[in-house]
Amino acid sequence: MSTTTDTTPYDGPPDYRLVGEHGMFPKTSHDEKARFNFLAHLNRHLASRVLPGVKTAYETRVEPGLEPKSRHDVRRALTKDPLFQHWSAHRRNTMELRQQAGRWVTLRQADEMNSRARELTEGDPRLQLDPTLELPNYLARIDHHCMPGSYHDELVPGDVTGAANYDCGIFVTTGGGLGRFNDGGGHAVVAWMKKNRPDFAPKRILDIGGGLGQNVLPIAQAYPDAEVVCVDTGAPVLRYGLARAKLMGVDNVRFVQANAEDLSMFEDGYFDWVQSTMFLHETSVKAMPRIMAESHRVLAPGGIVLHVEQPQYSSDMPLYEQAIRDWDAFYNNEPFWTKLHELDLDQWMIEAGFAEEELIHGGVAAVVDAELFPEHANDDVEDYGRKAAWHITGGQKAA
Ligand SMILES: C[S@@+](CC[C@H](N)C(=O)[O-])C[C@H]1O[C@@H](n2cnc3c(N)ncnc32)[C@H](O)[C@@H]1O
Questions:
Q1: Is the CB of 283 under 6 A from ligand 1?
Q2: Is 392 strand, coil or helix?
Q3: What is the span of the domain harbouring residue 195?
Q4: How many CA atoms lie within 13 A of 184 on its CB side?
Q5: 219, 232, 264: which to mutate for ligand 1, most atoms within 8 A of CB?
Q6: Is the residue at 208 inside a domain?
Q7: What is the pLDDT of residue 369?
Q8: Domain check: are 100 and 219 in the same one?
Q9: Is it the case that residue 2 has pLDDT exceeding 50?
Q10: Residues 161 and 220 placed together within one structural domain of the fold
């Protein structure tokens, strides 16, 4: 069960100095970079060296005689195993430490970053905030993935530090797997669309739960004549997102504060493409039908909806893998993660108005700068939930 006898060469994550430092990106000192590097390496160590041991522990001393009926039986049994406890506690700590490391980075330069964002966004019609917007409980009550204040809290009016923390820390959790600008998901979606719908020329694109637009900008760049709207509930991410987009030279994105359950500010059939990336798992069972229905309503005839998420649990996914994938729900403040991944998304799409023959299925993996991040370098390091490879559940409305 020891993890120290493994002699395979250690393939570490890319150096933090490779991260894409756009004009809004928080400045990091030598020591802060070193701390982020330490955490990225610790994550990689846990995934590549410790987690395989957890699997062996499961197979040799947990599973015999267990007869699990569901992933929950497996998870409950695993919680009694010392190696699972060791891996899980460290993984939780890497999340806590990443958030606190990012906080130190961003809070010490909060005034400077907040005024830079204010200068870049104040009076710009592409930032549309709604201070009266009520946050649903599934957002208001949770600090997602241990992120203090989640995507919405403001420490002072006009605050962007939470968004900056997310931006500078995600490289650590993903070990650079999303690329320099953490936008490998957006590039992957563009590549999917260009390959599978080469003649699709959307005039209006909506990204729901688009956050600070990391994965929205590649779409906006690939379709420069399109009007792109990034909707999110969090004012700090939207404010930071517009400032970031401007400094990265992308000018066709509007950042709108709204709840994706109610997109009544957009008329029926307004958008040719409705996109969501790693968004659905942060909502709720109650919100899902509303989000799906609104996405269908605002879609033009011939338009396409694509939801990109971590893989659904299916009957052919081993219960052990499902249980490990469920870790985020129980130890990383992602309560809807477990339920979402067992739902029949096709059924939700059909209930929202798509015919079965209009449904789209696919898979995408992050597209990253191959010179800096050798393609598929991490393919053998499966971290059950963090790997930059996702499923697409979508639909195309009849023209
Ligand atoms: C995990 S982040 C993903 C952000 C982005 N799509 C990306 O790929 O980087 C989920 C985002 O969804 C937003 N969100 C959650 N529920 C929402 C809702 N009902 N309406 C709009 N945004 C929502 C959160 O504020 C957060 O920014």
A1: yes
A2: strand
A3: 175-396
A4: 27
A5: 232
A6: yes
A7: 77
A8: no
A9: no
A10: no
* DSSP assigned state of 211: T
- Which tens digit of pLDDT belongs to each residue from 51-97? 999 999 999 999 999 999 999 999 999 999 999 999 999 999 999 99
Domain membership of residue 10 (yes or no) is: no
Residues 228 and 319 grouped into a single domain? yes
CA 231 to ligand 1 centroid distance, Å: 8
Strand-pair partners of 334: none
Instruction: Say if CB 177 and CB 368 are below 8 A apart.
Output: yes
CATH, residue 366:
3.40.50.150
Residue 182 domain-assigned? yes
**Domain count of the fold of the chain:** 2
- Size of the chain in residues: 399
Any atom of ligand 1 within 6 Å of the Cβ of 294: no
Q: Are residues 248 and 268 in the same domain?
A: yes
Helix then strand then coil, in percent of the chain rounded to 5, is 45, 15, 45
Residue 139 Cβ inside 6 Å of ligand 1? The answer reads yes
Identify whether residues 110 and 247 lie together within a single domain.
no
> Kind and range of the H or E element at 364?
strand 359-365
Q: Is 232 in the pocket of ligand 1 (CB under 6 A)?
A: yes
Distance, CA of 328 to CA of 332 (rounded, Å): 4
Token duo for residue 60: 């040799």
In a domain? residue 254: yes
* Strand 271-277 relative to strand 204-208, pairing: parallel
Is ligand 1 within 6 A of the CB of residue 178? no
